[in-house]
Amino acid sequence: MEQQLLAILDSEENKKYYRYLLLDALTTVSEMDFISLNNIHDLLGDEAITTVERTDLAYDLSSCPKLITIGKPNEQLAKRLLHFSVVEAQSEILQTKRYVCAWMVSEHPPEMIAQQMVSIGLFLTKYYGAGFVPFYEPFRMQLLQQSNLICPEFLADMLSCFKHYSYPTITQTLNTINQLDYKPDSINCFLSQDAKFYQQQLKIIFELYHSQARIYSETGKDVNSINLIEIARAYQQAYLCGLTQKNDQFIFALMTLRYGQLLANSQLKQAVDEAKIDEGSLSVRFQAIDRAQFLSINEQYLG
Fold first, then answer.
1. Is the same domain home to 183 and 257?
2. What confidence tens digit (pLDDT) does each residue in 86-143 have?
3. Which of 95, 233, 263, 297 has the fewest other C-beta atoms within 10 Å?
4. By residue range, what is the domain housing residue 133?
5. Do 52 and 178 belong together in one domain?
6. 172 with 242, same domain?
7. 3-state secondary structure the chain
């Protein structure tokens, strides 16, 4: 990841632009950590830290995201800070809130970028109905990008103030969204219905991911092989089949990921149908069914 970032942030082409690191102040790191805000202040000075004033956190600016200038145009990149930001990002995979969110390249100064980020967060409210959408959170961004592959121009156009926008994924890799060299037609630039749904259900999808990661760790499987979209689709199936209680939906999705198409088995389908009436009972109903019924499912979910 670090070498990938260096290739982007310290390339001859991008040295003439601003290079940024985005930190989420809703979570913290140790004061002793090299990338704590106090240490960054001591290292780079006050002018290197710009607050992105989230409209929903305007009452507490200390909790708002911090845009760190790690390289001004035609000046050296703060490579040591970049190194420790990567180390921190790779250690945060299972955290609900991640401190290190993104690395960016832009021709625009920090004050303008901070304003643009607020505008993007407000722009997305028309899709999600929230007061401000923290699109920069790595898990949210990855889910948004992967669930809208039908129209990759949507994200690239939304992030057009950046030459490059890179963020850490759940597999300890780096995803980069590059600036388009054209302006896409607004009619053909859209967010899919699936992508909207997944964003609205982000919290429970993250909980499912966290549970899957624990199961993989306990069974010796590679956590980095977890497919985020498979998790999101499993939850969506729980929702679409008519389950409304959150724990029922969670259990259905988790068992779907493990065994496959649950509704293909008559006993499992009956348990699901009964749980729609007796909400919150699906876990108990599944426990009463012989495991052989789960193992008998031939049609594996998502192949």
1. no
2. 999 999 988 989 999 999 999 999 999 999 999 999 999 988 877 799 999 999 999 9
3. 95
4. 2-191
5. yes
6. no
7. CHHHHHHHHCCCCHHHCEEEEEECCCCCCCCCCCCCHHHHHHHHCHHHEEECCCHHHCCCHHHCCEEEEEECCCCCCCHHHHHHHHHHHHHCCCCCCCCEEEEEEECCCHHHHHHHHHHHHHHCHHHHCCCCCCCCCHHHHHHHHHCCCCCCHHHHHHCCCCCEEEEECCCCCEEEEECCCCCCCHHHCCCCHHHHHHHHCHHHHHHHHHHHHHHHHHCCCCHHHCCHHHHHHHHHHHHHCCCCCHHHHHHHHHHHHHHCCHHHCHHHHHHHHHHHHCCCCHHHHHHCCCHHHHHCCCCCCCC
**pTM given for the model:** 0.94
In a domain, 108, yes or no: yes
If asked whether residues 100 and 227 sit together in one domain, one would say no
Both 9 and 115 in one domain: the answer is yes
Q: Are residues 22 and 154 in the same domain?
A: yes
User: Does one domain contain both 15 and 135?
Assistant: yes
